[in-house]
Amino acid sequence: MKRTRSPIDLRALEAFVAVCETGSMTAAAKRLQVSQSAVSQSVAALEREQGTDLFDRDSRPPRPNLAGRALLELAGPLLQHAHTVSGRIRDASLAGALPVRLGCVDSFAATVGPEIIRAMSSSTRQIEMWSGLTPALSGQVHNGEVDVVVCTHTVINDHRIIELPLLSEAFLAVASRRWLDGRAPKDSHWRQLAAELPLIRYTARSVIGQQIERLARHLGINSPRRYEFDATDPMLSLVSANLGFAISTPLCLWQARHYLNEIAVFPLPTGRLSRRDFLILHRQGEWIEFVEHISSLTGRVLDQLICPALTRSLPQLPADALLPKLTN
Any idea where the HTH lysR-type domain is (predicted)? Predict the structure, then answer.
């Protein structure tokens, strides 16, 4: 009858790896902070369980034989996975005490973010919040470096990551109010704007910059690339000076709201390319209540604070320019 080998004991495997890497039982025992006899017994038990010798006992220092080298090659990933599993279990057991790591794109972090922090300031839940670009944030939630992410686009192909719709906003043409001086309403249109002024862009390395470029091509806006910015604030400084027009969104405009009295907005044609959708990402089975809380808070902040303030400052703003939660 064929003998069934026992599953590998991870502590014995750790001792085996330590002997291979340090070159002796004594050095391995020192690294693992156990006695030399404990290391010797662990290695002997591992060989007994696997039914084969793992070291060439005739060499000094002892070197792994063919079976030992094969095991050593596989041992690293096994031990790393075991440590990851142990860490995940420990984190789950401490979930009530751990701060949630929340990553957000800049326009969300600078507008809705402070209101979320303020609303949760009386809660026992601690939040570590930082901002970044969508590609980096998507990668961080995939790698487990953040717990929850608010971003505008994702290409993550990972069934463990849950993507939920959070809000949607329309792209708008933005010009200086000085451009409107003396114009009839029929001339105050995005087409006239694009015919007279250069397009001031977000940088092409940002997701919003790429989205706007696709929209501009679709609308037939062929303005040469002259000015590009990473942020809305410097872009609106040129727009308010009537040096060009921009395509932006309500949240970005609210982020640079000290310019609202100097600009006007113009609706763009509706369509698949004319909106920017925000998603909230988290790992399956983790931080579900927190995600629901963030979603609810976002809706309240938009309905009660940001949308009314934007409408007062920009009466041309379409009613559907900023909508909490997408609908199917």
Answer: 8-65
